[in-house]
Amino acid sequence: MSPDFPAPPLPVVPVAGGGSFPVHRIYCVGRNYAEHAQEMGFTGREPPFFFLKPADAVVPVPFGTTGAIDYPSQTADFHHEIELVVAIGRGGRDIPAAQAADHVWGYAVGLDMTRRDRQGEMKKQGRPWDIGKAFDQSAPISPIVPKAQCGVLSAGAITLAVNGQPRQKGDLRELIWNVDETIEQLSRAWELRPGDLIFTGTPAGVAAVVRGDVMEGLVEGLGTLRVAVR
Ligand code: MN
C-alpha cells in the first residue's frame, strides 16, 4: 500500500569535514548550570530535568556562515540559550556514566531558542512547555564535529554574544550533570538511539533578541555558530 502523501524528509545535520548525521530525537536538559537556575528563580541545587524538541526543529548552519531563523509568532520575549550539543552514535538503555563516552559520536554548538513569555505562563499554570520550547526553527545548530576529531569535551568556554556584545558566559566544567551523567540519567528514562541529539543546558545570561539581531555562540574546541533573527 502506498502512502497518501510523501514521507517528510528526515532532518539531518551536516558533519564537519563531510557527511551527515540523521536526527532521531532532540533531548534537552533544563537548569544544568547553577547560575542559570538562579537567574530563573531557583536555588541551583535542584536536580536537572529533561524536555524534548521535535527533530525537525533543527536549523543547520555551516561554520563560517550566518544562518537565519524567523522571529516566531506568539511571543514578545524570544530568548537565546547557548548550549553544548552531544550527538549520540551508539544507543542503549541504562548506560552507566563510566561507559557513556563510548556512546558519544560527536558534538555541536546549538541554540535552545525559547518563547520565554509562553514558557513562563505554562510553568505558572502547570502546563506542558511545548509552546515555549518545541516550536519550528527552535534549534539552530552548527555542523557536528566528530569526537574522533575534537576529542572528549569536558571543559572549555561556552559564550554567546549578540551584535558583538557579550551576553552569556560559562565553562563546560560548570555543568551540574556532566555529559556522562546526563547520558546515564537520560538512558534510564528513554532508550537512546543513534541520531539522538542532547542539548546539555545553558549558562547564565539568557536574554531576548529582536529582528535584525545576530547571535554568535562559541564552544571552545568546536567553533562558532552565527545566526541572524529575521
Ligand atoms: Mn536550554
Report helical residue fraction.
10-25%
Specify the structural class: alpha+beta
N-to-C CA distance: 42 Å
**Overall spatial form:** globular
Q: Helical segment tally? A: 6
Residue stretches low in confidence (pLDDT < 50, at least 5 long) are none
β-strand percent reads 25-35%
Report the radius of gyration as a whole number of Å: 17 Å
Average predicted confidence as pLDDT: 96
Strand segment tally: 18
Topology as H/E string?
Answer: EEEHEEEEEHEEHHEEHEEHEEEE
Q: Could you describe the largest sheet, including whether it forms a barrel?
A: 6 strands, mixed
Task: Set down the secondary structure blueprint.
Blueprint: E1 12-14, E2 20-22, E3 26-30, H1 34-39, E4 49-53, E5 58-60, E6 66-69, E7 78-79, E8 82-88, H2 97-100, E9 104-111, E10 114-115, H3 116-125, H4 130-133, E11 139-141, E12 145-146, H5 147-150, E13 157-162, E14 165-171, H6 179-189, E15 197-199, E16 208-209, E17 214-219, E18 223-229
Parallel strand pairs: 3-15, 5-11, 6-18
Antiparallel strand pairs: 1-2, 3-4, 7-10, 7-16, 8-9, 8-15, 9-12, 13-14, 13-17, 17-18
Explain this structure:
- The chain is of the alpha+beta class and 230 residues long.
- Helix content is 17%, strand content 34%.
- The chain has helices spanning 34-39, 97-100, 116-125, 130-133, 147-150, 179-189; strands at residues 12-14, 20-22, 26-30, 49-53, 58-60, 66-69, 78-79, 82-88, 104-111, 114-115, 139-141, 145-146, 157-162, 165-171, 197-199, 208-209, 214-219, 223-229.
- The protein has a 6-stranded mixed β-sheet.
- β1 (12-14) and β2 form a beta hairpin.
- The longest helix is centred in the C-terminal third of the chain and has 11 residues, at 179-189.
- The radius of gyration is 17 Å and the shape is globular.
- The chain binds manganese (II) ion.
- Residues 28, 81, 83, 112, 199, 201-202 line the site of manganese (II) ion.
